[in-house]
Amino acid sequence: MTDSRSPEQVEDNERLKLQPDELQPDGQAAGPKRVLIVEDDSGFAASMRYLLVQAGYLAEIAQTGHAGLEKLAETQKSLSAQPAFDLVLMDIKLPDISGHEVIRIARERGFVMPVIVVSGDSEIDVAILALRLGAMDFVRKPIEPEILLYAIRRALAQSNLEREHQSAQQRINRSERLHRFLVDASPDIIFILDQNGRVSYVNERLHGLLGLDESAVVGRHFSRMVHGHDRERARYVFSAQKLSETALHSLELRLKSHSDAPGFRYFEVNLAAIGLPEGEADNDAGTRDHYYGVARDTTARREVEALANYQANHDALTGLPNRNLFRDHLALALIRAHRNNEQIAVLHLNLDRFKHINDMFGHAQADELLRQVGERIQRCLRGGDTLARFVGDEFLLLNSFIWSEQDVLQIVERINHEFKTPFKVSGKSAHLSVSAGIALYPEHGDTADALIRHANIALYHGRLSGSKGHSFFMSEMGESTDKRLQLQSELRQAIDQNEFVLFYQPQVGLQDRLIRGVEALIRWNHPQRGLLPPGDFLPLVEEANLISSLDEWVTRDVCKTLQEWIRQGIAPPRVAINISPRHLEEADFVEKFIALLAEYGIDPKLVEVELTENLFIRDPNMVSLKLQTLAAHGVMIAIDDFGTQYSSLSYLQKFPIHTLKIDKSFVWEIDREYRQHTIIKAIISIANGLDLNLVAEGVETDEQLRFLEIQGCDEIQGYLISKPLAREAMEIWLRQTAKDSIQSS
Ligand code: C2E
Ligand code: MG
Ligand code: MG
Fold first, then answer.
1. 728 near 677, Cβ under 8 Å?
2. How many angstroms separate the CA atoms of 190 and 270, rounded?
3. CA distances from 743 to 270, 677, 732, 735, 738 (A)
4. Is there a contact between 716 and 510 (Cβ–Cβ < 8 Å)?
5. Would you say the CB of residue 335 lies under 6 angstroms from ligand 1?
6. Mapping DSSP to helix (H, G, I), strand (E, B) and coil, where does residue 83 land?
7. CB–CB of 569/575 below 8 Å?
8. In this structure, what DSSP letter does residue 741 have?
9. What is the pLDDT of residues 300-335, one digit of tens each?
10. SS3 string of 596-651?
11. Which helix (H) or strand (E) holds 725?
12. Are 290 and 194 within 8 A, CB to CB?
């Protein structure tokens, strides 16, 4: 027998890589395969059928083209859309229509089984036309049985493969449609980032929530979706994510919106690394690192939280701050008073005979009276004072910036005066008067709790002793000093046992948003009470005469950190250290300070000393000399909380000052009060005029930032950029900043 297969056929077989068992007549499992023979030469048709039956197939014969088509159609109908023939052997020269025509009509009618043309025609055109019309193979007469059988098996195997492939493809398409539906129907924005942070996929929710089209973000860096002021933080988390492959990172970010009035919405973004198998990575670089992110819109929750936060800090009846908020304000005021050697007064106010009035007027009207009381007392206050409703008919009042008991008495008097006009509710009038218990800082206590307690004790002592009006706290009224002594001894131990830690808060340039410096802020890691803010212990440290030891500890720790950053190759930022006036006044302060820097090999230019203004009223000559020496060594000098105290232009010119730090209170007044605007504008223009570096503290909102930017402030520090961070977190940020600046340069 001769092999009549063309070289192409041989190659095809190789490509199909048919295994020996696949070349066996298949269909053992699904029943024998059925073959239709369309052939007008009945002798030849019969011998083919014989051959096929021998080989295990079922075979039928049609002698004309139309008969063949009928057979295909009939059986197809009877077998409910299942093709009844698995294969057709087709002669080309038929008495009625040509084999080509039969193939064409069969295809038109949707019959998909493979067709092998068996023809005596040796014209190549005949073969090509047949193959074009969809025949799978061509076998020339006279046939070699083995070759015919081989062609049949090959065609069946291939059509089998195609069918399987088709149904797999359908399954994949269905599953993909399902997944896409699930992803697009998700209430969250779902996205994938490549290793460089570029968006490679984002679902349709992007449009619903932010009004952006997929095409606006795919292929671009994810930070372009992030609102400007959150960008650095977002990049920082992304790089932290790259360092710790498996961990999930979660952060709250504002994403830019095209459809929203403020131009952004709040999202909680979760980011996780996913390792895609090599072949599935579809980014240009063909790399495996991908990040899967889900962004959940939290704008509504934020609004609810803001309301809840307001409610948690305010009294529902009067709208005044409640006890919690009062305590916070007091704690802040204490820090300032302590630094500036100022006095503070806490007044516990109580309405006289209010129970009686309550009974007379009934609850609803008594409530209305309390509201009016709140309003009247508030009229007597100055900016910076805080009035809170404590409970029932009791109020708490905080007066900062007082110089003597007389200042407090004036306020009490003003309140009494306001109360002289009778209150009116529903046409009835009521005469009210108020009693006050007063505790002063530092005389009567140096913590918020002690002052509130002592004001309360003073009120009740006044009541008990029958004196109306007001009474100041006196130590005989109770309270031992045992507790304070115990705290002071704890403090000594804490310094010895290294219980303090430094946090670092970045100061960022307004022009390029890059870190210029960091401020070192101390925390006490108390073994029982956890991490304590400086306001809770600095006054005691000072009282126990330990402030210099603590400042020294801080300076040493900053030196160690700088040394370590330099060793690790991190470009060190300028570090600001807060130095208490009492420490600076010590005779050998400058020598010790410079010696410490030298001990660790720290360039003094990397260090900035933060001092407060009231330092200059004490002993200007001494201060001047010390600052000159510090500056001569290269140490930078900053004035902290600028604008809150003795702000004199003369010292700014006389002393070697590099930086002014605008106090938080001015920053927080932005947008609130026209007068403060002028103060802050004046400070900025003074600083610019004297060529000083200007840092705004406590920047919390975009409005504040925008204002400062327009006015020409140099740097900002505040929660908007970052809260104070533990050293390790600061380190990651610094490393990332260095990388970013290398990339962008
Ligand atoms: P400061 O030097 O004026 O430091 C800034 C204070 O403002 C820090 O409070 C900081 O956490 C807080 N702050 C920064 N940005 C914002 C903001 O956007 N919003 C709000 N609400 N606060 C913001 P912290 O860490 O509690 O320190 C309080 C004060 O304690 C410091 O005021 C400083 O006077 C003193 N202090 C901190 N560390 C040291 C230290 O190592 N030595 C000395 N002597 N005093 C220190
Ligand atoms: Mg400071
Ligand atoms: Mg400050």
1. no
2. 10
3. 26, 39, 17, 13, 9
4. yes
5. yes
6. coil
7. no
8. H
9. 888 888 888 888 889 988 999 998 899 999 999 999
10. HHHHCCCCHHHEEEEEECCHHHHCHHHHHHHHHHHHHCCCEEEEEEECCCCCCHHH
11. strand 725-726
12. yes
Is residue 700 lining ligand 1, measured as CB closer than 6 Å?
A: yes
Q: Is the peptide bond before 442 cis (omega within 30 degrees of 0)?
A: yes
- Which residue matches tokens 């509504």? 300
Whether residue 718 has its Cβ less than 6 Å from ligand 1? yes
Average pLDDT for runs of 10 along the chain of length 745: 42 38 41 91 94 94 94 66 82 92 91 88 79 87 90 91 89 86 86 88 89 89 88 83 67 84 84 63 52 88 83 89 92 90 93 79 86 94 88 90 88 92 88 92 91 86 66 71 61 85 96 93 88 79 80 95 94 95 89 96 96 77 91 95 70 86 84 62 83 93 91 93 95 82 59
- Domains observed in the chain: 7-168 (3.40.50.2300), 186-304 (3.30.450.20), 314-473 (3.30.70.270), 509-518+548-744 (3.20.20.450)
0.85 cut: is pTM over it? no
Q: Ligand 1 centroid to 577 CA: how many Å?
A: 11
Nearest to 387 by CA among 330, 444, 342: 330
Q: Which of 575, 578, 695 to mutate to test the pocket of ligand 1 (most atoms within 8 A of CB)?
A: 578
538 burial level (CB within 10 Å; 0-12, 13-18, 19+):
buried
Phi/psi of residue 349, each to 5°? Answer: -105, 140
User: Is 698's C-beta closer than 6 angstroms to any atom of ligand 1?
Assistant: yes
Nearest to 123 by CA among 107, 100, 101, 145: 100
Question: Can you state the angle between helices 547-567 and 482-496, rounded to 10 degrees?
Answer: 30
For residue 507, report the distance from its CA to the centre of ligand 2, in Å. Answer: 11
Q: pLDDT of 672-722, one tens digit each?
A: 655 456 778 878 888 888 889 999 999 999 989 999 998 889 999 999 999
Dihedrals φ, ψ of 122, to 5°? -100, 5
- Tell me which amino acid residue 443 is: E
